[in-house]
From TrEMBL:
It comes from Paeniglutamicibacter terrestris. It comes from the Bacteria. InterPro entries: FAD-bd (IPR002938), FAD/NAD-bd_sf (IPR036188), PheA/TfdB_FAD_monoxygenase (IPR050631). Pfam families: FAD_binding_3. Keywords: Oxidoreductase. This is Bifunctional 3-(3-hydroxy-phenyl)propionate/3-hydroxycinnamic acid hydroxylase. Residues 7-347 form the FAD-binding domain. PANTHER family: 3-(3-HYDROXY-PHENYL)PROPIONATE/3-HYDROXYCINNAMIC ACID HYDROXYLASE (PTHR43476), FAD-BINDING MONOOXYGENASE (PTHR43476:SF3). The keyword Nucleotide-binding does not apply. The keyword Oxidoreductase applies.
Length: 574
């Protein structure tokens, strides 16, 4: 039996990246078909770390209340040497993006929440047991040919057509191979045994990375009373032997009082990979998640990087499908995501190298260096606050430079000679980075997270002013065509006045915590153009608003009429 089903986007793979991308597209009203070769979701633990960026995306698609019960916040990591002495503590305290920076989580339960969240969208269809064997692409779209094994053992073929296809099938991605792009990096030969047990026999709630030269290990406390251990394997240790209960019990004898009385979830050998695809797009086919990048487990960033991909790609696909942007915006998926994915791979590989040292001299040097560094508060906080983690900063893509209003790129520093810039406390550009998420008061409620109030599309944030008072009519018209929300942020003491006197179409937010005032006080950029993925596309003084908006729309190849909003419209010359 052959059938042909049409949708706007085909997603191959019902893993975390594919499920989140489907949720984002469903939220925007797009039609999506998800094809998964397996008969059901994977039900055993894999990823164990969920960060604040991912939880912010989960918040955006309205699933945070179903996900939080499967998480544990403030997941502290301790790197200890062979004597049990702490080399480094990683315990970031910030809630910059509205959530604790690090959480432990049970991936099967969170993935299940993402899958069940799709039920609210009539435009989303998920098909399990559909193995995509070929894809045909032409100028108008793509067609995936899937093989289905029926209940009676017979096989049938189904065809699914769409405008775009996103491969989220993991590291062996057939989509990536069809695209013919490189997958560069390393796959170290070091093998590790992962052991997951139920009814956690220890109960310690955090992560211990054991940099023991005799046999490096990991011990992780997870939600729902699950514990994970990982042990580095030596050459010659056979997989069939090391996965036996007897061998595992020998490994655990120094970790638990009774290693023979454990409830195992799984025992499995794996190797780490550090690879990034050369491009995340070719024509109408794209890749995301592990299909686009594989990274070692040390920073817990594999699952989170897939969330970042979905967050970046979902609104761009929507923009193309709705005619808000040209197809070329999809190329910015690679330019914005690839470098950060590689940075996370490199950091994870580096941390793994520190942990798995076995040479006595190298181990002694590492431990001595850590002892010295821990004497200096600034160095100690650098690791504790996780400031070594590279945060995404986009320098090319859907951006406008804050100094020159150049379209499609943004320098990391503010270099204008205007006095507000020269006197600023912080000359680091906020363009290309994720905007913070303080709590605010509004007519819709008090002490709410910013994203819950402003919605899930484009937003213009203006400190202290009515956006309609500081932007000309043609800019307001362009923003209306884009579907952007206009927001004024004022001290809480002024909120009642601003609500009464500002335009009725402007959302007034009260800064009752002072977080916004502190942020804007540091930077001479009182107008923020916020993308749907919460990254800053443009930041400027009010009179640079028209030119900045025009540059952002140009970077999208936007069909929105902004012909009058040109850089020369700016009243201030640099």
């Amino acid at each position: 039996m052959n059938s042909n089903t049409d949708s706007e986007v085909l997603i191959i793979g019902a893993g975390p990246a594919g499920l989140m991308l489907a949720n984002i597209l469903g939220m925007y009203g797009r039609s999506v078909t998800v094809l998964e070769a397996r008969d059901e979701l994977i039900d055993y633990p894999r990823g164990v770390g969920l960060d604040d960026e991912s939880l912010r995306t989960i918040q955006t698609v309205g699933l945070v209340d179903t996900v939080l019960p499967h998480t544990a916040p403030q997941h502290i990591m301790r790197l200890v040497n062979g004597s049990g002495k702490t080399i480094m503590i990683n315990n970031p305290q910030t809630q910059e993006f509205g959530w604790d920076r690090k959480h432990a989580f049970i991936q099967p339960e969170v993935d299940k929440a993402l899958y069940e969240g799709l039920a609210q969208y009539s435009s989303i269809n998920v098909h399990f047991g559909h193995l995509v064997e070929d894809v045909i692409e032409d100028a108008s779209g793509v067609t995936a040919i899937a093989r289905i094994t029926n209940a009676d053992g017979t096989e049938s073929e189904a065809r699914f057509s769409a405008q775009y296809l996103v491969g989220c099938e993991g590291g062996k991605s057939p989509t990536r191979k069809r695209m013919g792009v490189s997958f560069e990096g390393d796959s170290p030969s070091t093998r590790w045994l992962v052991v997951d047990v139920d009814n956690d026999p220890l109960g310690t709630p955090n992560v211990f990375l054991g940099a023991d030269p005799k046999r490096p290990y990991v011990s992780i406390g997870l939600p729902h009373a699950v514990r994970r251990w990982e042990f580095m394997l030596h050459d010659g240790e056979d997989e069939s032997v090391v996965t036996s209960e007897a061998w595992v019990a020998e490994m655990l004898k120094d970790h638990v009082p009774d290693p023979h009385n454990l409830s195992y979830i799984r025992r499995r050998v794996f190797t780490h990979h550090g690879r990034v695809a050369g491009s995340f797009r070719k024509g109408r086919q794209l890749i995301a998640g592990d299909a686009a990048h594989l990274m070692p487990v040390w920073m817990g960033q594999g699952w989170n990087s897939g969330m970042r991909d979905a967050t970046n790609l979902g609104w761009k696909l929507t923009s193309v499908l709705t005619g808000t942007a040209d197809e070329e915006i999809l190329d910015t998926f690679t330019s914005e995501r690839k470098d950060h994915a590689k940075a996370m791979v490199d950091l994870s590989m580096t941390l793994g190298s520190v942990i798995k040292l076995t040479n006595p001299f190298a181990v002694a040097a590492r431990d001595a260096a850590s002892s010295v560094l821990n004497l200096f508060p600034s160095a100690k906080s650098y690791f504790s606050d996780m400031r070594f983690k590279p945060m995404p900063r986009y320098t090319s893509g859907v951006l406008a430079d804050p100094t020159t209003q150049t379209s499609g790129s943004a320098a990391a520093k503010l270099t204008s000679k205007l006095i507000p810039v020269l006197t600023a406390n912080n000359k680091v550009s906020p363009v290309g980075v994720q905007f913070p998420q303080p709590r605010v008061n509004s007519v819709h409620g008090e002490n709410q997270r910013l994203d819950d109030v402003i919605g899930n599309w484009w937003t213009v944030l203006v400190w202290g002013n009515d956006p309609k008072d500081v932007l000309p009519a043609h800019s307001i018209k362009a923003l209306e065509a884009l579907g952007a929300k206009l927001v004024a942020i004022v001290p809480e003491t002024q909120r009642a006045w601003a609500t009464e006197h500002m335009d009725k179409d402007v959302l007034v937010l009260g800064d009752h915590t002072g977080a916004f005032k502190k942020w804007f006080n540091e930077r001479p950029t009182q107008m923020i153009f916020l993308r749907p993925d919460r990254f800053v596309a443009g930041a400027c003084l009010h009179q640079h608003g028209p030119a900045t908006l025009a540059a952002i729309l140009d970077s999208m190849g936007s069909a929105t009429d902004h012909s009058r909003a040109k850089p020369q419209d700016s009243a201030l010359a640099l």
